Amino acid sequence: MKKIANFRIVFFLIGILIFVAVFLCSNFSLAKTISTPSTKIKVESLDFCDNGLFKIRLPILMYHHIGSNPNPENTPAEGLYTPINIFENQLALIKEANINSITVREAGEIMLAKQDLSGKSIVLTFDDGYDDFYTNAYPLLKKYQLKGVLYVITDFVGQPGYITASQAKEMAESGVVEIASHTLNHPDMKQLNSKDALKQLVESKANLEKIIGQKVYDFAFPYGFFRHNELQLVRKAGYLTSASTLPGLLQYSNNRFYLFRERPGRREGQEFSHWLSVLEGEKATTTVKLK
Length: 291
Ligand SMILES: [Zn+2]
Description:
Order of helices and strands: HEEEEEHEHEHEHEHEHEHEEH
Low-confidence stretches: 22-50, 284-291
Oligomer: single chain
Bound molecules: zinc ion
Number of strands: 13
Structural class: alpha/beta
């Protein structure tokens, strides 16, 4: 008798769980909280029941330096460097896989218009505006006819290790590189009051527009740090999109201000091809272990 009673309790609890799941999936305003070491944010969509939100499968890759680390003993910085030969190999494999590279501005416009992507697409983004982007990445993007998005810290333009104003203008005019903002001086946006955070957003946009002579549309959060308030401020400052460092492949109509990004790291050859095919949602053809 006791066993039967236990079963009843278990079934009753399962029933409640199913009811709650159905209720949550039908509740459009439900939010879940994504927590990463750097950020905590409410996301108004749930992957397991996305309520018909418009979504596109669009891997956005995140790079920093392209080249070798001049100070390899500095291990935390080491992870920010992608050696040139590995980067070129990755570009060649993207090209070989017939993946269409678009800018983040194009992605934002597609999301805004709720269009579908034509074929497999990817966005290549580069944070901070280092001078090795101009010397190492830009020539390779041109060689492989792939587009890149460079998130520039505007107060650092022209300083040692960073691109110059004329390089930014040249790349913006090339049609190969979208120049986007990464604040005035790379603060942790969460630590700023709203007035100062808005200043970072508005002034960096205006400064960049003066430098390149074109409108600036997009933004990336330094360190990927933000809260709900900063998302509102990015919108208020007139940006089309902003990028986070949260991982993810599906970009939803409601995460235009915290686009998900993936880190390609130093994968190359078959390992990179396999990773790419997984990102693009293809059936894996090899059994290379993913890192
Ligand atoms: Zn940065």
